[in-house]
Amino acid sequence: MPVRTAGSTGDAWASRTLSADAPVHLAHTLAPLRRGPGDPCHQITPDGAHWHTSRMPTGPVTYRMVQDDPLTVTADAWGAGAAEFLDGLDHMLCLDQKVDDFVPIHPTVAAAHQRYPGLRMLRTGRVLEALIPAILEQKVTIVSAHAAWRRLVHLFGSPPPGSAPAGMLVPPDAAAWSRIPSWSFHGANVGPQRSRTIVRVARLAESLERMTALPPAEAARRLRTIPGIGEWTAAETAQRAFGDADALSVGDFHLASIVGWTLLGRDMDDAEMVDYLEPVRPHRYRTIRLLEISGQARKPRFGPRAPVTDHRWH
């Protein structure tokens, strides 16, 4: 997709405007970056701007992105990693991806695709930043995982560069994650298995970040060779770091049922979901995102919410 850019730079600030030849819906595209309410690395301010902090290879960055019109996005960035982030902005927003081969398998998905043509995938290229929150979300409630993420970032993150909103922090770097003591994980209600996996992947950070040069399916396959990283965790990482429109979160506690009830009016297990979505490969994750943002995704509630498991006694 041709992209025209305009930018200006300074010692601490840089800006870039992207003008695309097809719609970009910024809010829906960036939504997977936010890890729950109060995420210290992501804020949406009252003016509609999306703020995020990250660690680029060249250093930390705070960025602010706004939707100027359906075809135009402007990003401001601060910090040592600002120029690198802005240089890769069109790559991050997957403006190079085509959807000509996407043929929805259900009228509900087709309607959502027509209504939200600006939905893009995410290709941040920051593997560890996508992987660690996914590990925190393994086999626990999302409320517990988000609380753990907030606590650990508050304890071990660092102040953001530039004029970030109050309360924002840059996530810990690989060295900091690898040195977090067991009692800090326990205090964040993170059990031993997940904490060991986080330390393990932090020590492999250099090789993990090189996976962005691989085709997404191969990168996800290599992720799954790491003890503690299964299909679900690899898919959740690929959805954010690799821009993989096909990364289906098999093993999710609710996803197969949601797909079944939304599209077929009945329950469905993982195996049936995989078979049902096979015709839309390589757009299975895109299909899921369209269901999410359309507001059509549903699953009847048959019992009370699962209790939050307390790992702090270990």
Description:
There is one protein chain. The protein has helices spanning 26-30, 82-87, 89-92, 107-115, 127-136, 142-156, 174-178, 182-187, 192-203, 205-210, 216-223, 231-241, 255-263, 270-277, 284-294, and strands at 4-9, 13-19, 42-44, 50-56, 59-69, 72-78. The model is unreliable at 1-11 and 310-314 (pLDDT under 50). The protein has 15 helices and six strands. It has 314 residues and is of the alpha+beta class. Strand 1 (4-9) and strand 2 (13-19) form a beta hairpin. Among the domains are: 4-115, TATA-Binding Protein (2-Layer Sandwich); 127-230, Hypothetical protein, domain 2 (Endonuclease III, domain 1, Orthogonal Bundle). The chain has a six-stranded antiparallel β-sheet. Helix 5 runs antiparallel to helix 12 (231-241). It is globular.
**Strand and helix order:** EEHEEEEHHHHHHHHHHHHHH
Rg from Cα: 19 Å
Number of helices: 15
CATH level-two architecture of one domain = 2-Layer Sandwich
Q: Which CATH class of one domain? A: Alpha Beta
* Percent of residues in β-strands: 5-15%
Question: Structural class, from helix and strand content?
Answer: alpha+beta
The number of strands is: 6
The averaged pLDDT comes out at: 92
* Straight-line distance between termini: 52 Å
- CATH topology (fold) name of one domain: TATA-Binding Protein
EC number: 3.2.2.21
Keywords: DNA damage, DNA repair
Protein name: DNA-3-methyladenine glycosylase II
Organism: Nocardia fusca
